[in-house]
Design brief:
By secondary structure, the chain is of the alpha+beta class. The protein has 3 helices and 8 strands. Belongs to the Nudix hydrolase family.
Amino acid sequence: MPTPADDADTADTDVGVEVVHRRAVRVVLLDERDHVLMIHGCDPRNPERTYWYSLGGGVEEGEDTREAAVREVWEETGLRLAPEELVGPLREDVVVFPFDGRQIHQEQVFFGARTTRFEAAPAAFEELEELSTITIDWLPGRALGQVAETVFPEFLAELVEDLVAREAATSAPTSQNWL
């Protein structure tokens, strides 16, 4: 997951690799055809290894996770969501991964949201995000296993199914209350 926070707690390890501890949010944003908006990116220090990952990023000090999620969606796509449009949290977990020469220890919370398809354009990318982003595009949420490259998180297809199931359980057959 390629977006370390600038203000995160950091400590150097014995071998000289900086360790960044941070809280983060991820957003599974679905369109009307159950496609999920994803970022195709790379580690700038290892650009030949590309992957897809969900929208999201670091939680700023004093910010709650819903506020962080809607801010990250806007920064990465230009879409303005209201916190009440988020579904979840769907899941919480901890991941550890290398990025830009650092070891990231990330506690993350996943939310979902539904929108009509739009052309995503970053509204407030930082320099590192510009260097690590190849494109932002919609991938078929129910066929993520067929994507040739790695998709993060590995359980994303489960989150898509959870969102679709929640919608079916809370919507009348003719309702389009998620759109």
